[in-house]
Queue: 3 jobs
Job 1
Amino acid sequence: MDIKKFWDEGVSYDTYLQQAQESVDHPKTQLEKDYHEYYVLGVQRMNRMSKIYQPDEEQLKTLAEKKFKGKILIIAEPWCGDASQALPVVHSFFSGYAIRITYRDQTPSLIDDFLSNGSKSIPKIIFLDENFKVISSWGPRPAYGHELFMKHKADPGTYTEEELHNDLQVYYAKNKGIDTIQEILALI
């Protein structure tokens, strides 16, 4: 895939948030209608995380020491609970960097080149150098969130999907993006 094409066609975080709100206010596609409640939750979560997230000073020092000079391309969808937690954090923490967002469900999609254990899980945050060469990628959720997900997969009868989603949201609210950034910093 030509990653630069996806970069060029990607949108800014502000446009992404605006388009998500438009999907809430005026759903047009069948997916927007079917996933309406998830779009509503996604917008609420992005707005909340944007308000509560404060970049950690030590993490900012680590970023400066890394001398990262690239760009960040994110594969996401506004209805995704993990994406709605991660995108505001990445947008705020990397505010001095070029960031673009491409949609997973567009055709063609870049996600096929960034599968997570064979799945099209999002968000996928891709770090590029100045020439659009992939440095690394992160996603779809921090390690603790992945542990919760695997617990559900191992025994969905005991640890239900509802419990998983609740525990994930409690974790995201308490952690406030710290783990997401810490894991990303380890990759760049």
Job 2
Amino acid sequence: MVIFRRILLILGGLALVALATLVFICNINQGVASFWLGKFQLVFLSGDYFWPVIGVVVILLVLGIIGLFAAFLRKSGSPMIKVATNEGISVNISSTAVDSVVKKAAMDNPQVKDVKTRIYNSSEGVIICLYLTLPQEGNFPQITTAVHQSVEQTLKAMTGISVSEIKIVIANVANKLDKH
């Protein structure tokens, strides 16, 4: 989806720059206008609208350039989660680091075969979504309760981040032959 948005921004920016250039050239040179536009008569070519047309050209050009810049801007790194603020000192931790801590805490349970995570920042703390692969013969309520407690305690102990919610989804059930 991101690549599609970038392509649209590039094409839109180039189209606006090309349109601005064409309108500018047609406004300056009547011969070019008659060549490119053929039999079409445009009101702005009558000569009374020179400066308003230049204003429109500048607006189109600026919008095209903004579109091109937006297409090539990179997003900053992973979002930061504020851990603590004390006497002018602010401590942040990246969501990637929080993700690593959460995965490690979930995988500490030997019954968890695989874990995928999503972490969202909220005003009350972080919201953690865990997608677990558990063994077929496991006791799911017992395993998920243990994972929930482990993740919450480990995250609080290691980072000091408060957890507002932990959502656990059993995404897959592994067969005895699966060696995840």
Job 3
Amino acid sequence: MRPGRQRQGRSEVREKAEAEQLFADHRDRLEAHLRARLANPQDAAELAQEAYLRLLRVKRPDLVRHPQAYLFRIARNLVHEMYAGRRAHNDAGVDPDLLESEDPSPYDLAVLANQREAVERAMKELPPKCQAALLLRWREGLTQQEIAERMGLSRQMVQKYLAAGIAHCRKRLRRTAAGKRGSP
């Protein structure tokens, strides 16, 4: 083996070891981060693993200044890819996991209907611009920049509307879930 190839091989082994260590050190936090954004804990574990695999495939890891932040960015992108893929294949608003089984249980359908109603009620409580930004993001899949252009706002203002709207909807969904757990 030529000296250059040997150095390159050692460098690749070291970079792989560093990626493995990074993933080992942050796996639990990464999965928790993903579980907060996904309904299914199995999806969170799978996306964390996929983020690790994509981190390993980076051609120039020496250019990554903040590997931990980069790993979490990969994971967030995977969440967006997953939702975009599901949205493209599922215009009916039904959880794709339910479509895979032949007979979704009435309970599963009722849970989805209740969640959808809770989100719709929460959306009605929001200011009109906040509602519009969320609808453009969720129903039309527009980026923040596209929403800003369509609504005549700055991207930062769109970010604020989206963050406030999502926080409000999550809060309402938690209250709804807590209320149902407390009732017989």
